[in-house]
Every structure is written in C-alpha cells, then in structure tokens.
Amino acid sequence: MKPIHVIGGGLAGSEAAWQAAQAGVPVVLHEMRPVRETPAHRTQGLAELVCSNSFRSDDWEHNAVGLLHAEMRAAGSLIMACADLHQVPAGGALAVDRDGFSAAVTERLERHPLVSIVREEIAGLPPADWDNAVVATGPLTSPALSQAILDLTGEAALSFFDAIAPIVHADSIDMSRAWRQSRYDKEGPSGDAAAYINCAMDRDQYEAFLAALLAAPKAEFKAWEDVPYFEGCLPIEVMAERGPETLRFGPMKPVGLTDPHRPDRRPWAVVQLRQDNALGTLFNMVGFQTKLKHGAQVEVFRMIPGLEHAEFARLGGLHRNTFLNSPRLLDRSLRLKADPRLRFAGQVTGVEGYVESAAIGLLAGRFAAAARRDAEPSAPPATTALGALLAHVTGGHLDAGAGSFQPMNINYGLLPPMETPVRDEQGERIPPKARGRAKKRLMSLRAMRDLAAWLGEAQPAAPEPALSA
Predict the structure, then answer these.
(1) In this structure, are 311 and 231 located in the same domain?
(2) pTM of the predicted model, to two decimals?
(3) Parent domain of 226
(4) What is the DSSP letter of 408?
C-alpha cells in the first residue's frame, strides 16, 4: 500500500500520522527540524509546545475545550494520551510537562511499525507522485511552501499579521440596552435590514471608554514577529491615539442609526456587532481588532452599554499567523480544491489552540486513511465539538468569500444551539443563574452521544502496538 505523506511534526501532523497509521495505512512523517530551524522552537522533538504548557479546561460537561478533549480521547488521540500521561497540577485545566509530553509523542511515533519519520524540509509543493498528503505546517510554514500554496490557489496572501476582533456570544448581549438595525436600514443580500446589533454611548460614556482604552495595558510582540500595522485594520487603541474624535468618525460612528430605547436622542457613538456564524450564536465587534491584553479587553469592552455581562468566544489580537481562507479553498474533508491530493491540518486551516490544531489533524489523518482504502471519508456530526470545528473551517463562516474568515478556538457558539433548560432531570426548577451551565451540559451530553454513533460507524482502527510509557 502506498504511504500517506504528512508534512510537519507538530501537534496536528503528529496526530494525523498516528490516526492514519492506527487505521492500518503506512505513513511517512516529514519534519524539517533540525535541518531547518524556526525562531520559535528549541528542540528537535515532535509536538513541541512553543508557548503555554496548558491544554486549557478539562471539564467536558461545561467547557467546550474540555468536551473536545473527551471526544479526542474517545477517538484514540495520541496527543491526548500523551498529555494525560504527562500532566502536571493545574486545577481544572490539563497542563503538561512539555518535555515529557513531546518525548512521549516522539517515541510512540518512532516505534509505530507503520510510521517512518524523515527529517527534511519540503520546499514548495509536495512531489507529484504523492497522491495523498497532509500539510500540517503550522503558523511558521516555510516561505517556499507558503509561496507555492499562494501560486496554486491564486490567493493574495497566506502569511501575514492578522488583526482579530473579539467575538461575543449572542445570548450574553443585553438587548434591553442594545438593538438590531443596519445603518440607514440598508438591506443586505438576504434582505435583512437589521443585520447588526448596536450598542449606543452618550458623550460621558464614550469619553470614559476612550480613557480606559488608552490606559489599558497592551500585549508585547515577540522580537521575531516584527509586526507592521496596516491602515485598513489598525488596532482600535492605535486609532484612539490619533485623537478623541477618530473612533466617532470610524468604527464607532453614530450616523444612520436610531436607538429605540432613547429615540429622542442621537447617540454620541455606537459600537456595532455583526453576525459571525451561520447559526447566529456569535457576533463580532466591528472594527475592534486590538492588541490589548486579554484581561484588559474584558474589563474595557464590558464598559460598552449592552455588553456589561458579555461572554467572549474569542478575544482580540494582532500577531503573525499563517492560515488559509479555508471555507473557500478546502472541501468538507479538508482537501485543497485546487489540488485534491493535498489535505491541510492544524493551525494553517484557521483554528487556534493546541487542542484545536490536533483535532483537525485527527480528522485529516482519518480522512486520508479512508481515502487510501478507497472509502468515503465520514465527517463527525455538527453537534460534536469535532464536527463543529470542522464546519467552522470548511464552511461555517458567513463571509468567507470576502476574506473575513479568522482563526477560532472551539466554543459552544459553534455548535447547533439548544433550548435553555428551565428544569433539571428530576423536574426541579433550575435557578436562572445556573441555566447557562445546564445548557452546556446538555450540549455536551448530546455531543458525546452523537460522537459514539459516529465512531461506531467508522472503520475500526488497527490494534495499537505495545508501547512503553
């Protein structure tokens, strides 16, 4: 049987290689270190953690990333198995001894009878005779491969410094203070004249917000990032530094909008939020790309009327990243439409976080193995964390054609919504403050049930070889 080639030995590539090999398909894993080093890595180990050692919350019932952990464990994830083996105390989070974790991943792949590891850089596109390859090269994709992908897809940019605006869970916005309206009631392509959620400020609120914005601590960039600013996507605090009226004549302009809660008074400034996913559960803060530290973002943005209790699915940022406009360029099994022999996995597909990157690697490895066996790849249900993440990457974004697709962590807003429960399983009334938590648990239970059905349909994996801890 011809092997599957996996390019990149990070979390996604390592997981993809493992999943394919566990399905009985030979794999060649190509990792460019130490032949070519990166500014961020310090070892030659596979799945090296270059930033935090935390995989975040491990609470599968009430936290979306914990749910993703549970789903990956159920699917036989190498990354989760090694993380569990090398965890360190971190309260409710799953944190790992980074060196022990990387060594365990490396050893298991080196000892797998169907995995060959080759230390080399793949410059440019994979050779033409590689008919089934997974590209999992991460945010530091080599310049030669980046340019080859650009040439193949016709995209204007692949590697750039992306400005990210915060995303808010729709059900955490106070609609007794906010309202729906498009500027000048202009209808969009769908005929919706109320596509935005608006939050109005009076003059005193605006000036207090501006002062807090300017005083808030900013994130520092790493020396190797050398981040430039572009006039079209300046951080909001940089715009504010240009003068007190800049935001009022920019992303917070109040024209064409009438606050139904105070129709007699024109707002001094307005923050608009635009629907970010097809389900309508997430809204992004228009023009609010920022490099404020995360804690400061929560504090400052909750000063906005209507967002006092906002829950953020993603906070803003500005950093170096390399990712595809995946909803436009990839099909539902992560294949590049312009060259279907290539699948993509990990952060390059437009996900954020260690676990999310490994999860897309898990799916890519399974899809590639199915294709090698001439079977139709089976996608996990959209009600699961794995399925929801895949849907975000390959088609869940509303405006992928306009280039506004941005990386995302897993969160409950990506899953199909459920009604908020009022009573528990025993029929007892749930206190209002506990209902959101109860809904998350129901969504997690649904996800694990639907995942079990999907795994039951999937082709059984080959027996795992005996490996030492």
Answers:
(1) yes
(2) 0.71
(3) 164-318
(4) B
